[in-house]
Amino acid sequence: MNDNDSKYSGCLYYSSNTLGRVMTRMAEEEFSITGLAPSYAFLLMSVNDKPGIQPGELSEQMQLSPSTVTRLIEKMEHREYVTRKTNGKFTKVYPTEESLKLDMKIKKAWRNLYNRYTTLLGEGKGDELTVLVYEASKKLDF
Fold first, then answer.
1. Structural element, H or E, at residue 68
2. What is the dihedral of CA 65, 70, 75, 80, to 10 degrees?
3. What angle do CA 139, 37, 14 make, to 5 degrees?
4. Other beta carbons less than 10 A from residue 142's beta carbon
5. Environment class of 63 (CB within 10 Å of its CB; exposed 0-12, middle 13-18, buried 19+)
């Protein structure tokens, strides 16, 4: 640890939250070209890639609680990016034409985010860190 490091930099809780804040800022900057916050953009990407996807599958893909996914869907429905269709007890989410038009811009923002952090970390290190963080989150989430 050098003199400029925080006294908490050896704490996983502190360091992971710091990384989360840095990545959130970067993602918000890159996804600003879409006019959407990153969470909404990822939701639309999932719906665009699989029209008729169910909220439960979205929850699993995005690793968010069902109630959070429901709020995201409601917001995107209000902005006319998605529609929901219910058949019995099953709800499916479909993209609108506006969402499909935005898809290339969303994917460009995602690519830009990846390029930005891998330029800073190095592509191999960025990919390795992604795997390590994801694997750690799976092991710690019981």
1. helix 66-78
2. 130
3. 40
4. 4
5. exposed
Residue 61 and residue 46 in contact, taking contact as beta carbons nearer than 8 Å: yes
Which residues on neighbouring strands pair with residue 90, listed in sequence order? Answer: 87
0.85 exceeded by pTM:
yes
Of the candidates 56, 119, 63, 67, the one whose C-alpha atom is nearest the C-alpha of residue 90 is 56
- 100's tokens: 């499909």
Whether CATH 3.30.470.20 fits 15-140: no
Domain-wise residue ranges, the chain: 15-140
The 10 Å CB-count burial string (b at 16+, else e) for 12-41 is: eeeeeeeeeeeeeebbeebbeebebbbbbb
Predicted confidence (pLDDT) per residue in 12-52, tens digit: 999 999 999 999 999 999 999 999 999 999 999 999 999 99
Q: What is the pLDDT of residue 42?
A: 98
Q: How far is CA 71 from its chain centroid?
A: 15
The full 3-state SS of 84-134, as one line of letters, equals: EEEECCEEEEEECHHHHHHHHHHHHHHHHHHHHHHHHHCHHHHHHHHHHHH
